[in-house]
Design a protein that fits this description.
Blueprint (H helix, E strand, L loop, with lengths): L10 H37 L4 H30 L2 H12 L1
Helix pairs in contact: 1-2
């Protein structure tokens, strides 16, 4: 029986994957910022003057939604790209 370590157990590979994750998250922060600006522009065009409470709610709601979706999807992609999913599938096959 071979002692197969998960891909993320390799510190070099794990560091590379996390570096890639944070690089992509920085891009998604920019995308989130653009989405917030777009939402605020839309609210201004459709409703005229908007209150500070609406601005805060829009920034928090749109910004947090985009960043949360990006973070979770990037974790899924990182898990798949690192081979972690295959390691779990392989362990499930050996236990059956």
């Amino acid at each position: 029986m071979t002692d197969h370590r998960p891909a993320l157990s390799d510190p070099v590979r794990a560091a590379a994957m996390w570096k890639r994750y944070w690089r992509l998250m920085r891009w998604m922060i920019l995308v989130s910022f653009v989405a917030v600006i777009g939402a605020l522009y839309y609210l201004h065009v459709e409703g005229g003057l908007i209150s500070i409470h609406m601005i805060i709610a829009t920034v928090a709601g749109v910004g947090a939604s985009v960043l949360l979706a990006a973070a979770l999807m990037l974790l899924v992609f990182m898990s798949s790209a690192s081979g972690h999913d295959e390691d779990v599938a392989r362990k499930d096959d050996t236990h059956d």
